[in-house]
Design brief:
The structure is a homodimer. Chain A contains seven helices and three strands. By secondary structure, chain A is mainly alpha-helical. The first copy, chain A, has two domains: about 40 residues, no CATH class; about 80 residues, Arc Repressor Mutant, subunit A (Orthogonal Bundle), CATH 1.10.10. In chain A, strands 1-3-2 form a three-stranded antiparallel β-sheet. Chain A starts with a helix and ends with a helix. Chains A and B meet through helix 2, helix 6 and helix 7 of A and helix 2, helix 6 and helix 7 of B. Chain A binds a DNA duplex through helix 2 and helix 5.
Chain lengths: ~150, ~150
DNA sequence: TACATTTGCATGTATATACATTTAATACAA
DNA sequence: TTGTATTAAATGTATATACATGCAAATGTA
């Protein structure tokens, strides 16, 4: 559906301005759906993302600042998100012996099981969320990667 | 730059999953830049968006719920955003005589002046933000509109 | 008219983002 | 070695999102 109709705006100054608004609006569309999926599990999209980063470590610990670097939102607060996950027993946090300023974070078995449980649901939803064919998705990824320069 | 490199992820399950993450990441990229631009004026991107909706009314009042409908993030809270804008003298709020449940909102002269002041800066930034040529931006808008079904 | 339902907005709470500041540990230079 | 700068993480504050609830006005119906 055309963005102009969805937000009841007659027209945009130009395609560049429309693209900005289009990306913001589409992100909100996606996050809203993700929230619905995560909610029964007591996870926020951001917490889920941190768990995925930790799983990608294949058992190796990772510091809080490395998590921050890999997060989708560079301004979010890895320290506090990790604390929330720890309270739920989904991650472990322990002082790094080599550098006591750092804190090593690892996903727990419980955290891995939660991700597995979510996995299939998410893959299905992601495909439904994006009403594009294979060639179009590929083109979209190309354009977004190029957009950021 | 490839998303995989930016967030240090080896690969995605498929293009659909990459597209989800790509949109979230690109939104964060845009909002961060917008924040920098709005900050000197004491506006958040969301407050700016509400002001733009009000300007689009060309002097006619609009209710809080209509603002909500047109906002980029359907879950945000128009009531509280309007309150913030009112405190800054950028909007007027008055009870709707025809239906006393409703509240008519209008942008003030001060609000319009602020938008004018920002206008040029924003147009310039938007063009710099999107490193695509005209044909590519147009294609991106087509894909995002189609994506949402 | 009386009463239940719906609507429009405000408000309360939890979580997250944005950004500044603090604290402790480490690195580095005089 | 001592003092300074840098780094990693935690913490504080303001704003925004997500969602539930409350309240008053309007609507619908017996």
């Amino acid at each position: 559906m055309r963005l102009e109709d969805e937000i009841q705006q007659k027209e945009f100054k130009d395609d560049y301005n429309k693209a900005i608004v289009n990306i913001l609006f589409t992100q909100s569309y996606i996050v809203t759906k993700q929230n619905n999926l995560f909610k029964p599990y007591g996870l926020s999209p951001e917490q889920y993302n941190v768990l995925r980063i930790l799983r990608g470590q294949n058992g190796n610990p990772i510091t809080v600042s490395s998590i921050q670097d890999r997060m989708l939102n560079k301004m979010s607060n890895a320290s506090r998100l990790v604390e929330k996950l720890k309270q739920k027993g989904l991650v472990l946090r322990e002082e790094c012996p080599a550098d006591r300023r750092q804190v090593d974070i690892m996903i727990t078995e419980k955290g891995l099981q939660l991700l597995n449980q979510l996995q299939e649901e998410i893959l299905n939803q992601n495909n439904n969320l994006i009403q594009l064919n294979q060639e179009e998705v590929s083109q979209l990824n190309f354009l977004l990667d190029k957009l950021r320069g």
